[in-house]
Structure to design on (503 residues):
């Protein structure tokens, strides 16, 4: 294998990881900023609603008092009982309107204290009107008119209007401040979204450029292998196979970066558009400033607060979790690929027995059996940690996908292969794998068959990555409903592979 490839691969991984890390930063900033701004917007919306309710309650009390006075004066002047209808209706509603007034202004600083004495003013005004009406009813209309001419009722009404106008002014001032702050938050959210989207696009472009350059370097390395000494033809053929296989791995990795990682980003960008649309509906409601809104506009604002904003935030959070899982899986395989191999003399039966011990209870308790046959080839020189991981993953996989209609039988056997290589078959009588999925099961984040078991689709991809780090490979033979045989091929002596790749 050429020195360009040997040096370039770690560099490619470093650059790729840096690009991925650079992509996560704007995404985290975006989500954090969006959550904070949406929370701030919700707080503003709640306070605006409270202020609008308080404003409405103030006006309702004042209008009721004016209607009552109009009815009283009309009855006194004309003695027509029809004028008493608005008076009676307004005074009858007054206790509820006063209760609503105090309830809606209780949490508004300054306004609550101002309206506390309003009950007394209203009570005096109603008492004054009631007295004049009683005088007219008793036939003393002239005295009722004289009572009105004293201007006592006018002063009480002016006092009520002054108190209400001051309260309305305080509410309107606070509304203007909140609307200005909410508009500023919305503007900041818009620019944060645009900046993060641009950063994500740039990161994807950088990832594509890095992958393209690395694939070009692989092609150049393959060309160098083809012109090596003819006497090394067999080794050149093997190294070419390694390069082709590495190229395929890079292509698959590129697919993950450009497709699987892009999917949650697209979801986030889509739901950020939904956030923006929801803010538009809220802006229409908030900026109405006392204007009458249509029922649809009010409904759109409520839908934005109760449904659209929480739904968009939930999907953004779900997409970030998915992206974090994908990145962690890639990092896990990447770390194993960079770990330095430590060849040592290993008893394969001990490795298999240790792996079997971890699933022994699950198999034996269901009446199953484990058979380990290493009679033909038992000792190899390889990396112990890597082999522990390979056997552990394959055994766990067999237990996870066993056929519930029969007891699991798990068999492991080894046999020699020509040119210093060894074969190891791990056979089970589980569910089996369909012919269309025999290669798919080794791809990163891909799973085959019925998805009734937890997992992220990295187990067999991890095994293939591990065995290939040892200079070997893995394939599978399977039939649905009968079971599977995972066939491992690896060198008897890993030190030969390590020395060869160093040349």
């Amino acid at each position: 294998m050429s020195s360009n490839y040997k040096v370039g691969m770690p560099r490619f991984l470093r650059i790729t990881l840096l690009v991925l890390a650079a992509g996560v930063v704007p995404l985290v900033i975006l989500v954090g900023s969006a959550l904070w701004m949406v929370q701030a917007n919700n707080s503003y919306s709640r306070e605006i609603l409270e202020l609008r309710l308080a404003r409405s309650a103030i006006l309702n009390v004042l209008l009721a008092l004016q209607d009552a006075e109009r009815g009283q004066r009309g009855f006194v002047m004309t003695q027509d009982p029809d004028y008493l209808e608005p008076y009676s209706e307004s005074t009858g509603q007054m206790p509820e309107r006063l209760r609503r007034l105090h309830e809606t202004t209780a949490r508004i600083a300054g306004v609550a204290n101002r309206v506390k004495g309003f009950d007394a003013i209203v009570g005096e005004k109603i008492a004054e009107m009631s007295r004049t009406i009683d005088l007219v009813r008793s036939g003393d209309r002239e005295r009722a008119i004289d009572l009105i001419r004293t201007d006592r009722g006018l002063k009480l009404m002016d006092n009520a209007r002054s108190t209400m106008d001051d309260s309305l002014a305080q509410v309107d001032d606070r509304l203007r401040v909140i609307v200005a702050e909410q508009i500023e938050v919305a503007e900041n959210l818009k620019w944060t979204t645009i900046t993060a989207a641009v950063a994500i696009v740039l990161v994807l472009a950088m990832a594509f450029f890095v992958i393209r350059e690395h694939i070009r370097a692989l092609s150049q390395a393959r060309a160098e292998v083809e012109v090596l000494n003819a006497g090394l033809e067999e080794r050149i053929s093997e190294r070419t196979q390694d390069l082709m296989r590495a190229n395929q791995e890079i292509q698959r990795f590129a697919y993950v970066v450009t497709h699987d990682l892009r999917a949650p980003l697209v979801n986030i960008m889509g739901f950020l558009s939904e956030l923006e649309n929801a803010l538009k509906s809220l802006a229409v409601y908030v900026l109405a400033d006392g204007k009458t809104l249509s029922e649809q506009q009010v409904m759109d604002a409520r839908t934005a607060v109760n449904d659209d904003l929480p739904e968009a935030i939930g999907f953004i959070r779900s997409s970030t979790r998915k992206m974090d899982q994908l990145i962690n899986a890639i990092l896990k395989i990447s770390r194993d690929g960079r770990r330095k191999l430590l060849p040592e003399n290993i008893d394969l039966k001990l490795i298999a027995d240790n792996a079997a011990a971890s699933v022994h209870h699950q198999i034996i308790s269901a009446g199953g059996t484990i058979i380990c046959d290493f009679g033909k080839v038992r000792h190899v020189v390889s990396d112990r940690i890597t082999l522990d991981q390979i056997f552990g993953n394959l055994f766990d996989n067999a237990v996870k996908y066993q056929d519930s209609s029969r007891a699991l039988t798990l068999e492991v056997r080894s046999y020699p292969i020509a040119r210093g290589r060894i074969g190891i078959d791990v056979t089970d009588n589980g569910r089996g794998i369909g012919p269309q999925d025999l290669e798919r099961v080794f791809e990163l984040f891909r799973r085959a068959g019925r998805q009734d078991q937890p997992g992220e689709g990295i187990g067999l991809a991890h095994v293939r990555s591990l065995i290939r780090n040892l200079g070997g490979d893995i394939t599978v033979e399977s039939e649905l409903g009968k079971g599977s045989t995972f066939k491992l091929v690896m060198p008897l002596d890993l030190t030969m592979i390590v020395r060869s790749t160093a040349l």
User: Anything to note?
Assistant: The chain has three domains: 3-49+180-338, 52-174, 343-502. The chain has a mean pLDDT of 76.
